[in-house]
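for ur thesis appendix - Xaa-Pro aminopeptidase. copy paste whatever u need, i formatted it the way the template wanted (i think)
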Amino acid sequence: MSEELTPENPEISQTESDEPIKQRKNGLYPGVSDELAESMKSGWADTELHGLEPIAQASETAARRAALSARFPGERIVVPAGNLKTRSNDTEYAFRASTEYAYLTGNQTEDGVLVLEPTATGHHATIYLLPRSDRENGEFWLDGQGELWVGRRHSLTEAEQVYGIPASDVRELAGKLGEATGPVRVVRGHDSGIEAALADKVTREHDEELRVFLSEARLVKDAFEVGELQKAVDSTVRGFEDVVKVLDKAEATSERYIEGTFFLRARVEGNDIGYGSICASGPHACTLHWVRNDGPVRSGDLLLLDAGVETHSLYTADITRTLPVNGRYTELQKKIYDAVYEAQEAGIAAVKPGAKYRDFHDAAQRVLAEKLVEWGLVEGPVERVLELGLQRRWTLHGTGHMLGLDVHDCAVARTETYVDATLEPGMCLTVEPGLYFQADDLTVPEEYRGIGVRIEDDILVTEDGNRNLSAGLPRRSDEVEAWMAQLKG
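the 3d part is after this line
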């Protein structure tokens, strides 16, 4: 990574907002001569882009803003994208815009802020962004976030064309908000500077209502969102195929080879992975969120792969398959796997419009409880097991969650609109039962210990039932074995 330059002339070390350009303490250049500074101001071609097409979801984001406007008439609404976060010294983590901001604008750049100003008939939306880095004061080549360091960003005029929202300079926003009057709501937790400017104008109670509304607005996906989720799933299916083809290399190295293989697919076809990939081989499969991925991959063991590609518009898949590393389940592995498959089948069948959200969980848990009683691992009857939750020693987690821009989407929705609600067409959720027999669990026969199985698919509620978006990946044990053999062959 190259080092940033350091200005010696204070006149070129200021941006338009009079903030000093970030300097590296131990840069190799002692400063910038007046002659070089002057040279860098001129001789550059005009690169302004014209006639840009709006983003694919422009009509959907407009409709979402209209719904937000209708919910909070007469109030100023402020939704920040967030800021860069330091990873170490002067390097930053890759930026991901806040879910609420991305949902309402489609924009993904740091420091952006969407503001809805109340009018007599609704709201006027403005997207506040950093303009292109300044060439007159040297920002574009001297600042660590300047154009020559991190790449070109849209001009405000270009941004208006792309996002369909009037754009203004975000560096002026804090002052405007400080002078604002009337009721204001802000999505907290993303931009401390914006929150500071509104400190005497907002309340946590009202801000939480805004956050909850935006979470619940995502419960039912529009057509664009469904299309993006299917894209994410399709790429994820290809990522799983990639992994199966290189299991021999993973055996020679570690779970990290699996992680890296899937990550390549995510970066080539999408934006990123939607969450830390779980590449859990052997007893690691019994750790629900095993993301260290530093363990061995051994023939005869199972590999629990829980991973999802995130699209360029930030929608993620979330799929799990539990695969025999050598391509064939042992008799006991197959018995446990088939039990989880049967539970998942019952759960998926319960996903339909008009059903309670909890129905798919209850259906899957009943099957798992029945199997545990049948195998003599817990004393029945099944109703007693379910009433006391005794099956949870080996199932541990809920059977699914909403899916969308976040892998656990709509997480702050009210209970009555989420887990206690009724399913509607357009909702998308995971169905993911599992059985996990910990390596140190003395209540089960020794041969069970260290076996973990989870099967997870992404299910869209339709008008007449459901659609398994991830049906492209086989689930039944014999189909999994045949699929692996074909890929390896």
